[in-house]
Amino acid sequence: MLPLPDPEKTVEPPAPGEVQPMRNPFSNSFVAISSMSKTTEMLPQEKPPQDVPPQDISTGELPLEKPGISPPSQTLLNRSQRYLTAEVSTAHADVLFLWCCFISGLVDSTIYNAFGTFVSMQTGNTVFLGLGGATPQDTSKPYGWAKSLVSISCFCLGCLTFSHATRLLGKLRRITVIASFLVQTLIIFIAATVVEVGVVEGNLDIITDDIDWWTVIPIALLSFQSAGQIVGSRAVNLSELPTVVLTSMLHDIFTDQKLVAKDNVKRNRRVLAFFAILIGAICGGFIGQGTDRMQIPLWIAGGIKLAVTFAWVFWPEKPTSVV
User: Fold this and answer.
1) Whole-number mean pLDDT of the chain?
2) Is the pLDDT of residue 234 over 90?
């Protein structure tokens, strides 16, 4: 029950300027409005919040920042590392490997004109190797079986090396693809330099009834690098573009159930690869006959492969799948 006011007690009127206190009906205490306002004025004013760097969860301490220096995650080194370790997109990668097919035709026709062997088409080398024992050595291409054996061996070694390196580094990582094609480019340039400086005679008319064993140097180098092309095509899932073989490609073209279909991407790639190798071989023959020097087609092949290498540097990144 609430207490009733005392009728005998008189309440004096407030003096001028004095604030009338308010009676709390639920207690006997009085709260002066003027006191509340004064107390409020005495309280310190709150400052607006400022941006505070996030704390380190492990230590609870604020990170040290130096003026003018971005956080480590934004540094050029970290951005470059992320860019190089990202996987490249396989979309339209067939364009680059069609250029590799052209390189195979260009180099193979040049090396065959000079030394009577191949560096990419190992089927022909296997036949030359088999014919070695029955072929007299006084032919226009002496010891062709030995050159073919070197080419086959170095091609197999190249497949072993490039495949293991690709699996170790990540087959679709940008740095892996760039490194693979850069190595192939350097090898072609080294082979062209060996001929250019005279370690190996570059005249296409110097084949005699005896072998110059120095010729195995460019054969070995070019066979090794050609293995990188087929390993690269398998890495980006373009098995229809092996770049170094025609027999299986022709088989796949004419046994395709959708041979005459309007939309057949794999058929189109195989047909284009066939003509790329053929045109490359034709160009190699004409360049060799026109210049009479085998290093000229090699320099051209190295320049094209260098352009392919730079294309991988700026190739689009593989899109991230959204779960």
Assistant:
1) 81
2) yes
Residue 114: per-residue pLDDT:
87
- The string of DSSP letters for 43-107 reads SPPPPPP---PPPPTTT--PPP--TT---GGGSHHHHHHHHHHSBBP-TTTHHHHHHHHHHHHHH
pLDDT for res 317 = 92
Tokens 């001929």, located at residue: 195
Q: What is the mean pLDDT of residues 216-239?
A: 94
Give the distance, in angstroms, between the CA of residue 135 and the centroid of all CA atoms in the same chain.
Answer: 46
Residue 317: other Cβ atoms inside 10 A: 12
**Structure tokens belonging to residue 291:** 């210049």
Which positions ≥6 away from 48 have C-beta within 8 Å?
none
CB-based contact 189:309 (threshold 8 Å)? no
Taking the C-alpha atoms of residue 221 and residue 177, their distance in angstroms, rounded to an integer, is 19
* Measured CA angle at 286 (ends 245, 153), to 5 deg: 35
pLDDT at 116: 86
Taking CA atoms, 262 is separated from 39, 55, 195, 212, in Å, by 88, 61, 47, 52
Closest CA to 231 of 247, 245, 242: 242
Q: Is 205 exposed, middle or buried (0-12, 13-18, 19+ CB in 10 A)?
A: exposed
Q: Kindly report whether the global pTM for this prediction surpasses the value 0.85.
A: no
DSSP 260: T
Residue 191 has pLDDT above 90, yes or no: yes
What pLDDT, on the 0 to 100 scale, is given for residue 143?
78
| Polymer length of the chain | 323
Q: Do 104 and 120 meet the contact criterion of CB atoms below 8 Å apart?
A: yes
